[in-house]
Amino acid sequence: MTSQEIRQKFLDYFKSKDHLIVPSAPIVLKDDPTLMFSNSGMTQFKDFFLGYKTPTAPRIADTQKCLRVSGKHNDLDDVGRDTYHHTMFEMLGNWSFGDYFKKDAIAFAWELLTEVFGVPKENLYVTIFEGDASENLERDQDAYDFWKSHISEDRIINGNKKDNFWEMGESGPCGPCSEIHIDLRTPEEKAKISGLDLVNNDHPQVVEVWNLVFMEFNRKADKSLEKLPQQHVDTGMGFERLCMALQGKSSNYDTDVFTPLIAKVEELSGKKYTGILEDEKDIAIRVVVDHIRAVSFAIADGQLPSNGGAGYVIRRILRRAISYSYRFLGMKEPFLFELVAVLKDQMGPFFPELEKQGNLVTEVIKSEEDSFLKTIENGLIRVEKLIEQTIADGSKVLPSEEVFELYDTYGFPDDLTRIIAEEKGLTIDEAGFKAEMEKQKLRSKADSAQKVYDWVTLETKPENFVGYDQIESETYITRYRKVENKDGEFYQVVLSSSPFYPEGGGQVGDKGVLENAVESFEVLETKKENGLIISLINGLPKDAGAVFYAKADATDRKNSQANHSVTHLLHEALREVLGTHVEQKGSYVGPDYLRFDFSHFNKMTEEELALVEEKVNHKIKESIALQEFRSIPIQEALDKGAMALFGEKYGDSVRMIQFGSSKELCGGTHVKNTIEIGHFKITSEGSAAAGIRRIEAISGDKSEEYFKNLENQIHELSQLLKSKDVVRSIEKLMEENASLKSEVEALKKEKAKGEIGEWKNAYEQKGNKQLLVKKTSLDAGSVKDIVFQLKKEIPTSVTIILSDADGKPMITVGVSEDLAADYQAGAIVKDLAKEIQGGGGGNPGFATAGGKNLDGLENAYQKALNL
Q1: Starting at the edge strand that comes first in sequence, how are the strands of the sheet with 769-776 ordered?
Q2: Which of 658, 594, 589, 659 is nearest to 623 (CA)?
Q3: DSSP bridge partners of 702
Q4: Which spans of this chain does the record mark as coiled coil (predicted)?
Q5: Burial (CB count <10 Å: 0-12, 13-18, 19+), residue 285
Q6: Measured between alpha carbons, how far is 28 from 44 in angstroms, rounded to an integer?
């Protein structure tokens, strides 16, 4: 069976068992503060397990894209070094929300594996939770009894809490689980050692293939367990491992999930993949084909590589692949981007986002490769300097601070520094490097450290958002919890009736006040977590159960919604002016300004920007009324022409915002009429990433302020220039300035001519060669002209000029052509530049170097005299 057939058979089986088949959620999570990425199949269903949302169906099945590269679930460092760990992988899963439980989950799994897929029963083992006295958890006798009807009791293994009690994270839904393991060894190997002894012992051919989790509990912040209102089933089967088992392979990388990608890497690199675990070349190929999947899906789902958050994780994965291919495959030019087409052919039919976003993914990866390969080349120069200095200091160990700076500041891989050092007979200070890494982690933890306590529930009233219709409301606190961070002690509250818009869809969360006649609290931010709208306040009310009035900041809300509405008009205008390839790729909507990222491969011209601005302002002046479809079926919205953004997870019912011909799915707050936006002004346009342009703009009050400031500046200029015709006055000043510059340049040349005559007579005879070492305050351009003239006129000469022009040290070296075989200007200047803490270069006949240490010119002068 091909991997495509295996995936389809799984989905078809559960469809026959009355499961709703749903698409994979985006791999990148945008509205979950506890996770950056979907790290398991159940991530998109958290709200169902917690009871915050009603499941769309009692039974669901899907294949979910997952990424395990951060936090508790981090497989990154294992990838490539074994046959079965991956960063991105598919999790086949079936779920029951308060419907069937252990008996049916076990029966379904057994039937699918043994009867549909035909896995030999004698190759399977199962584990059950053995219990844990410290938590008063008993052995999972029910699971044991149900398994007995399918498999012999000697193949049912007790498992400890680590292996057989599944937890989503530090807190949240959890419960005992039952794993299914498969023994893929040869009959001869099985005869030597029983599979019983190898289950959960990291054997590459005795692997867990499916985990059946029985959700019964909720782990609270204080680590205690409470029963969930309903019992649920959450199963996850590793697609890649299943393919390995069904295709009779001993490695995931030998299945057709990876072989087309490996074949393309072989073609591009000229290296042959042999599948040897310890072979660095084979490790590199495994790293490349694994990582390209993770990066491609993340970008397709809207997460571009960047220097922070989820974007930094994606950049790190990609750079790991580039580093491995550079070192072990000899790939010095971009090539990973060429794998995207292969991946698209393989997985595009099941994951349409890869098909739709293929060009963008390709361009972003190519740009990142270009950038990081330059980083490596520049880093190699820095490493060589560090090695030279270490040897000069009489040491054999590269100092940890410098190695860490190369890694942390310049992005140069530490393992590459290691390899280069070893080639020169040196090592790095490993203990010191680890200590530096630990310091960085501690700093990072300290910045983000936050202790969150358990919710205290006060009311069982419905919790509603009323902010689309009003910015003030009478309300109750339904639940609250304490939060401690580096800034102090705060409280998060959930309100029965909240006017505060929670951060999402690019729009910032509302601030405001929560008050009554007795006390008042500042609302510092509003966010959404697991379906709850949570506002952060600066204290705990004396009577938390009292009636309160919630008031969102009216000015900020007015400006934010103007900026949000105008992003819709901007999106439409960009598509009209640039083409329908334009799609939103990110946004920020706040009260002060808006930022809009969109797919486009060229810098916008001034004419294009002006036309976009004109189109948006025309729509504003048309006074178009908002048409809000607050809850309509998603297909109906799409049929009406609404734009859905890739990387967003939409439910069965959606909210559609329409301003005339502009129709988008959106959960943000908006003006009632475009005339409320006032005026739209683009303040900047630039590159956000490869294939992504970024516009920053203002509207409403801020647009008025912008033009008022311009008016004031023009008035001040008019006063300074003593003229109402500011433009003509500035043109006249520029003409005068250009004339004065010409005079200054002429004077410099005259001065330089005077210097040349003096310098010609200052050469010292050194054997049969001439040496000039001279200090000056002439500028760099003048020095260059003189040196070029002198090295032509003075045969067998080396000319060294040390300048302190503008308070900056500069060294210039010229070597006459007849000495080119004996002296290199670049080598001389590089040696002298050490004295001024600088660097530079050039060609054998001419070179320059700048530096930081002006006082070092004297040492460089003395050193040059001894050349």
Answers
A1: 764-766, 769-776, 797-803, 810-815, 846-850, 839-843
A2: 659
A3: none
A4: 723-750
A5: buried
A6: 11
Cα–Cα distance list, 263 to 256, 266, 339 (Å):
11, 5, 10
What is the CB neighbour count within 10 angstroms for residue 600?
Answer: 20
Residues of the chain by 3-state class (helix, strand, coil), percent to 5:
45, 25, 30
Residue keyed to tokens 């030998």: 254
**pTM score:** 0.73
**Residues 400-444: pLDDT tens digits?**
888 888 888 777 888 788 878 887 888 888 888 888 888 887 776
Is pLDDT at 56 greater than 90 in this prediction?
A: no
Instruction: Show Cβ contacts of residue 333 under 8 Å, excluding neighbours closer than 6 positions.
Output: 373
Mean pLDDT for the chain overall: 90
CA atoms of 837 and 528, how far apart (whole Å): 52
pLDDT digits over 757-797, tens only?
A: 788 888 998 888 999 999 998 888 888 888 998 988 899 99
**DSSP secondary structure of 223-261:** S-EEEEEEEEEEEEEEHHHHHHHHTT-SSGGGSTTTHHH
Which residue matches tokens 């912008």? Answer: 706
Of 86-100, 451-465, 809-823, the one with minimum mean pLDDT is 451-465
pLDDT for 555 equals: 95
What SS3 state is found at 860? Answer: helix
Gyration radius of the chain over CA positions: 34
Tokens of 242: 């299943």
Q: Please tell me the predicted confidence (pLDDT) of residue 696.
A: 96
Structure-derived torsion over alpha carbons of residues 61, 67, 73, 76, reported in degrees to the nearest 10: 150
Q: Where does residue 703 rank: exposed (0-12), middle (13-18), buried (19+ CB within 10 A)?
A: buried
Indicate the helix (H) or strand (E) that contains 126. Answer: strand 124-129
Closest CA to 329 of 383, 283, 292: 283
pLDDT tens track for 279-336: 999 999 999 999 999 999 999 988 888 877 888 889 889 988 998 999 899 999 999 9
What are the tokens at 734? 């520029």
Task: Give the residue numbers of the binding site for Zn(2+).
Answer: 564, 568, 666, 670
Side-chain-side CA neighbours of residue 477 (13 Å): 26
Residue with the two structure tokens 């909240």: 498
CA 353 vs CA 23, 68, 236, 571, 596: distances in Å: 11, 20, 23, 20, 21
Nearest to 28 by CA among 64, 79, 75: 64
Which residue is associated with the tokens 């009429």?
Answer: 673
Within 8 A by CB and 6+ apart from 736, the residues are: none
Question: CA 381, CA 412: separation in Å to the nearest integer?
Answer: 11
User: How far is C-alpha 253 from the geometric centre of its chain's CA atoms?
Assistant: 26
Torsions phi, psi of 332, nearest 5?
-95, -5
Cα angle vertex 247, ends 244, 251, to 5°?
30
Q: Which residues pair with 529 in a beta bridge?
A: 532
Instruction: For residues 470 and 669, give the distance between their C-alpha atoms in angstroms, rounded to a whole number.
Output: 11
Query: DSSP assignment, residue 691?
Result: T
Structure tokens, 684: 């900047």
Give the H or E element holding residue 789.
helix 780-793
Annotated binding site: 564, 568, 666, 670
Tokens of 69: 């590269």
Q: Which residues contact 393 (CB under 8 A, 6 or more apart)?
A: none
Looking at the chain, the whole-number percentage of residues with pLDDT higher than 90 is 56
Q: Which residues of 116-135 are buried (b: 16+ CB within 10 A; e: fewer)?
A: ebebeeebbbbbbbbbbeee
CA–CA distance, 152 with 149 (Å, rounded to integer): 8
